[in-house]
Amino acid sequence: MDLRNIAIIAHVDHGKTTLVDELLKQSGAFRANQAVAERAMDSNDLERERGITIFAKPTSLEWKGTRINIVDTPGHADFGGEVERILSMVDGVVLLVDAAEGPMPQTKFVTSKALALGLRPIVVLNKVDKPDAEPDRALDECFDLFATLDATEDQLDFPHLYASGRSGWADADLDGPRKDLHALFNLIVNHVPKPRQIAHQDEDFRMLATTLGADPFVGRLLTGRVESGKLKVGATVQALSRMGEKVEQFRVTRIQAFRGLAQQDIEEAQAGDIVSLAGMTKATVADTICALAVDEPLAAQPIDPPTITVTFGINDSPLAGRDGKKVQSRVIRERLMKEAESNVAIKVTDTPGGEAFEVAGRGELQMGVLIENMRREGFELSISRPQVLFREDGDQKLEPIEEVTIDVDDEYSGAVIEKLTGPRKGDLVEMRPGGAGKTRIIAHVPSRGLIGYHGEFLTDTRGSGVLNRVFHEWSPYRGPIPGRRQGVLISMENGTSVAYALWNLEDRGKMFIGAQEPVYTGMIIGEHSRDNDLEVNPLKGKKLTNVRASGTDEAVRLTTPVTMSLEQAIAYIDDDELVEVTPNAIRLRKRFLDPHERKRQSRAAG
Predict the structure, then answer these.
(1) Are 393 and 327 in contact (CB under 8 A)?
(2) Residues of the chain with CATH 3.40.50.300
């Protein structure tokens, strides 16, 4: 069967996964009466809840005698490690662009990777049926983007289609029949080249492992594209590391190919196929699976380095162990090492003492997804504030700079620019009308200045602003950036919070907890209205007497407390604070000192 391997890339929420749904339906991958969930490729619980793609996943379909392997990729740069790996498996890309928004920062990130590999893109202008769509402007911006990214003449001569993924049509002309996706199927078959590996069918078997999975019945599963030769079930192969060292020798117990949303066992894999292999115990991502006669590994794509680090520690609060079952540092370390093995964008290092671990990654969202998965698995953790990783270039200290693209109502643009270019040390690059009363702002801001900014940004724009960010470059250190301006309210007692006490504390600031919630000494229960921290007693009840008066016995009515998501909590805390994460709760607290340090400080205080 004729073969094509493609990846679909786009910015977050531009419609990748919805388009893949329609491609599968119209190709006949589903039975007529088969129940299929919306966004079927987003199979992970977190992907469905957040409406974003986190993990790159292959699927395949047949179209007029051609098998098309499609890889659905994450749109967020924090999960760029997934994208960088799987682009080596494909021979072409479909770039999906929202006809109203045009190319966005995450589009730029993934497209730069694809163009650098020499892949020829197909541009699909999606959502052209929206009232604010401007497909011609979006198409011009795509061409400008490719030119900025040093695309070749062949890549600049890209075909384009107008489409609506949700309605299930794509046409070469904006005023086309708008019936189906046949134009896109035909363009993929005619424009994307056949895998060059097909010409190497008679050579020794070689495959570069790009993703690692696990099956409860089969064990480890390594997925990749067969670069040369053929492989049958039962054959004995070896795994070579990136450096050419032999990792292990094993017998292939199962070969699985992607067919629709499922994986199907096949007897033989051929050059150009995207398959999963089982049978190995040690081989991992970036290893070369090959015949015993091969002694040279395949070159693996370099992965961009991490930009932030977060410390994962054991939960040592007084409430530790009440919710989760996995609380020991050994168990936490095993889970983090397992994550680092399958996710090449994450690096884990032990800290002195062995009870905490430095986890380096791409961004706050990537860290938030990892922590959320761990808490659902029953872990209890204490998480530090994210710290930016710096580089040394000779005597110069370099820090990561991010390109921030903001769409905001015209009336709030001044406040946003003031915050970014003032205390956060950003540079305004571009500011232009975005249509429909909106302004588009593009700025280069240090990563340090963006930690904890998103909540403040939503407040400044009354929830109407959209902020997107992507790594831009390493730049000389821009000096200190002030942290959070407000102090916090800290509990000075252990026990259960009382409504009367919280009601009296509302004049002091915003509350993070409600009545009848467990609290302990050092726990942060609210934000102070001033810039200093304040210790308060949330357990103080009302003194009861026999005297009643209309003025003093008013009913206690509490203001709804501020509830933070995991990412908001991590971004909110200061350097001397931690987020306590359990399966059922997210709490903020001050760092606890060990008894010796506490005694030393109390002696120093007098």
Answers:
(1) no
(2) 2-194
